[in-house]
Write a structure and sequence with these properties.
By secondary structure, the protein is of the alpha+beta class. It has a single domain, classed as Cytochrome C3, CATH 3.90.10. The chain contains 5 helices and 3 strands. It is globular, with a radius of gyration of 17 Å. The relative contact order is 0.12.
């Protein structure tokens, strides 16, 4: 019985990891709707290119379910959420106005979607 439970847990964990990497959230951009231009977050870049582990951000910076975190630029500037890295030391500084377009993508009309 113990082996059956252990096998079930391992199978569930394996399927979860597979779904994240093979067509799941790690292989697509997440788009946070914003009036100043939608914020596009690339899991591919952060996880596969920068070699960040899921546990680096989840659950201490972000909840695991997309859309559950509500935060503002003020939060980011205070070192919360994206600001934990994007502080000018570890990654580009989110406070620098020259960096706004690195995250906030504008529509053809120059407005957020």
């Amino acid at each position: 019985m113990r082996k059956l439970i252990t096998s079930g847990i391992l199978l569930t964990a394996g399927l979860f990891i597979f779904s994240c990497f093979e067509g799941g959230v790690l292989n697509r951009d997440l788009v946070f709707k914003n009036k100043n231009g939608d914020v596009v977050f690339s899991h591919v870049y952060h996880v596969k290119v920068k070699k960040q582990r899921c546990s680096f951000c989840h659950p201490k910076l972000f909840k695991k379910k997309f859309g559950m975190d509500k935060f503002s630029m003020e939060d980011v500037w205070q070192g919360k959420y994206c600001g934990a890295c994007h502080n000018g030391t570890k990654a580009f500084d989110a406070k620098n106005p020259k960096n706004c377009s690195r995250c906030h993508k504008q529509t053809e009309k120059g407005e957020g979607k």
